[in-house]
């Protein structure tokens, strides 16, 4: 059974670094691992110091990575939109192809980042190719939309299918009066596409809320605002039924130089924030990642962090 580990949190706290390091650590333990960036502002390629694209790329034995391109899936959603427009026209409701084209004129429509991520989540989990899929998610607002989307889309698609059925019945009645049996010529590919999309959204919801296979890890830094935002994120995720078990506190100053009073003061402040975090989240495991002087880029620099973030 493919496991899913999601990393999320406030922007700039190091989600990408944690996701990349976790993927490396899992691969070192012998797990076939895929690291997926769902953040529109991708930085996973920077973390691994390699070019990534919309298809999985093997970085080394047992470790692959991908940066999701929502536009790569836009054609799938556009076909469904065009089919709905055709149904509406058949019932006398004016919606031209130009209206659909305007929807997609500037690329993938709003929300398609999350929709593409969920679509691919189901694809990768059900492929049985990887033991673990690690997700580097967008900052908090995008992440919450990602986890709310299956339920929202499920309701929207159910309503759409119901309305589509009513529209088709009206259109079919009119066509039958005009053309008789020939009115029903043609396939159901687009209808099946809508049904498949609805099934995938339900499958995504089942995966996201399955505590046996899914875990969400919230990344934060030892600062008051980050703690408050993390508290809201954990609450919203739990309301959505998403399993949250771990907090990763990144950039913790652990070994301040004795000769540096400012560093000593900062370390004491971090220790107070860590105590506050443990008090605020008594039921969550707290893992700390030390602050480093050098930027984390490439597999070699990710290894020490991977040691802290065991799978």
UniProtKB/TrEMBL annotation:
<comment type="similarity">
    <text>Belongs to the arsA ATPase family.</text>
</comment>
<dbReference type="InterPro" id="IPR016300">
    <property type="entry name" value="ATPase_ArsA/GET3"/>
</dbReference>
<dbReference type="Pfam" id="PF02374">
    <property type="entry name" value="ArsA_ATPase"/>
</dbReference>
<protein>
    <submittedName>
        <fullName>ArsA family ATPase</fullName>
    </submittedName>
</protein>
<feature type="domain" description="ArsA/GET3 Anion-transporting ATPase-like">
    <location>
        <begin position="2"/>
        <end position="309"/>
    </location>
</feature>
<dbReference type="InterPro" id="IPR025723">
    <property type="entry name" value="ArsA/GET3_ATPase-like"/>
</dbReference>
<dbReference type="InterPro" id="IPR027417">
    <property type="entry name" value="P-loop_NTPase"/>
</dbReference>
């Amino acid at each position: 059974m493919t496991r899913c580990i999601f990393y999320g949190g406030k922007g700039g706290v190091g989600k990408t670094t944690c996701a990349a390091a976790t993927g490396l650590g899992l691969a070192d333990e012998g797990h076939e691992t895929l690291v997926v960036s769902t953040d529109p502002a991708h930085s996973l390629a920077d973390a691994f110091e390699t070019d990534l694209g919309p298809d999985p790329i093997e970085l080394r034995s047992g470790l692959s990575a991908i940066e999701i391109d929502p536009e790569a899936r836009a054609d799938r959603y556009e076909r469904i939109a065009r089919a709905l427009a055709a149904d509406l026209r058949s019932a006398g409701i004016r919606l031209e192809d130009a209206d659909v084209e305007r929807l997609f004129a500037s690329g993938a429509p709003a929300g398609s980042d999350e929709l593409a991520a969920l679509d691919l989540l189901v694809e990768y989990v059900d492929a049985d190719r990887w033991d673990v899929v690690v997700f580097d998610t967008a900052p908090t607002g995008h992440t919450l939309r990602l986890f709310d989307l299956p339920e929202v889309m499920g309701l929207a698609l159910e309503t759409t299918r119901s309305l589509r059925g009513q529209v088709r019945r009206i259109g079919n009645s009119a066509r039958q009066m005009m053309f008789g049996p020939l009115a029903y010529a043609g396939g159901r590919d687009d209808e099946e596409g809508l049904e498949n999309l609805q099934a995938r959204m339900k499958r995504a919801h089942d995966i996201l809320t399955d505590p046996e296979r899914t875990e969400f890890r919230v990344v934060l830094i030892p600062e008051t605002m980050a703690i408050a935002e993390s508290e809201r994120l954990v609450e919203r995720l739990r309301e959505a039924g998403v399993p949250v078990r771990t907090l990763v506190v990144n950039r913790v100053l652990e070994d301040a130089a004795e000769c540096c009073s400012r560093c000593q003061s900062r370390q004491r402040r971090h220790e107070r924030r860590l105590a506050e975090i443990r008090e605020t989240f008594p039921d969550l495991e707290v893992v700390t990642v030390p602050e480093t002087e050098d930027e984390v880029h490439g597999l070699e620099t990710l290894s020490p962090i991977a040691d802290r973030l065991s799978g």
